[in-house]
Automatic annotation (TrEMBL):
Stated name of the protein: Uncharacterized protein
InterPro entries with a match to the protein in the record: OMP/PagP_B-barrel (IPR011250)
Superkingdom of the source species: Bacteria
Listed Gene3D superfamilies: 2.40.160.20
Organism (species): Oceanicola granulosus (strain ATCC BAA-861 / DSM 15982 / KCTC 12143 / HTCC2516)
Length: 216
C-alpha cells in the first residue's frame, strides 16, 4: 500500500513547474456504506450464491479511514490531481453469519485511487473557499474472505471506481489551510477467490472528511 501512495504523489507532482499552485492534502473522516448485493460464482468450495449484505465502516478502528491527495491548480478556479482513499467495509455480523461466512470484509483498505477534476470559488464567503470535484479511477482493496475452508487474503485490482466531492477550505496561513467535505465513492469489485471462483459487489462509501492542505 505504501507503493500506491508514493505513486499517487509522484505522478501528480510531475507538472508542478507548469502550474500556479500545488496542494498536498491529508484527511481523516467518518465513513459509512449502504447495503449492497454480493454475488459468488464458479468457486470449488463456496456454492454459487447471491445475497444482500449490510456493510459497516468502523472508521476509527485500526486501520483507520484516511486519505491523501495532490492537486494542481492551473488558475484561480480549475484544478486536477490524484486522490487516494483508504476506506474500509466490514460485513455486519448478523448478515455475515446468516450467509455462512467467517470473514467477509475489505478492511486493510477498500483502497481507491482516482484522477479528479475540481472547480473552486476563491474566498466566495469571506475567506471561505467552496469547491466541488469528481473523478474516475481504480479500486485496489485488500480482500478478506473465509467460508467453508476457502480462504482469500490479499490486495487485488477489482475494478473501476468513481468519486464525487464537495466541501470548503479555510486558510490558516499563506501556505496552510484546513477543509471539510463530503466524499462519495462508488467502486465495482470483482475479486478472485483462492479456491477458484469470483466474489462481486458494487460498493458505495459516504464520508465526511476533515483535513489539512499545504500549498507550494
Amino acid at each position: 500500500m505504501r507503493q500506491i501512495i508514493i505513486l499517487a504523489a509522484s505522478v501528480a507532482l510531475l507538472p508542478v513547474a507548469a502550474v500556479a499552485e500545488t496542494e498536498l492534502s491529508f484527511y481523516l473522516g467518518a465513513q459509512s456504506s449502504p447495503h449492497s448485493r454480493v454475488h459468488v460464482e464458479g468457486d470449488r468450495v463456496i456454492p454459487d450464491e447471491d445475497f444482500l449484505i449490510g456493510w459497516e465502516g468502523r472508521s476509527f478502528d485500526p486501520p483507520p479511514y484516511y486519505g491523501l491527495r495532490v492537486t494542481n491548480w492551473s488558475g484561480a478556479n480549475f484544478g486536477y490531481g490524484l486522490d487516494f482513499v483508504h476506506a474500509k467495509v466490514y460485513a455486519g455480523d448478523d448478515d455475515r453469519r446468516d450467509a455462512g461466512y467467517d470473514t467477509l470484509e475489505f478492511t486493510d483498505g477498500l483502497n481507491v485511487l482516482t484522477l479528479n477534476g475540481y472547480y473552486r470559488w476563491p474566498q466566495r464567503f469571506g475567506q471561505l473557499t467552496p469547491y466541488v470535484g469528481a473523478g474516475v479511477g481504480v479500486a485496489v482493496p485488500y480482500v478478506e474472505v473465509e467460508k467453508g475452508g476457502s480462504s482469500t487474503f490479499g490486495y487485488q485490482y477489482t475494478g473501476p471506481a468513481v468519486t464525487l466531492i464537495g466541501g470548503a477550505s479555510y486558510p490558516l496561513t499563506d501556505r496552510v489551510s484546513v477543509f471539510g467535505e463530503y466524499k462519495g465513492t462508488y467502486s465495482m469489485n470483482e475479486a478472485e477467490l483462492d479456491s477458484g471462483g469470483t466474489l462481486e459487489s458494487n460498493i458505495v462509501t459516504n464520508a465526511l472528511n476533515l483535513g489539512v492542505s499545504f500549498s507550494f
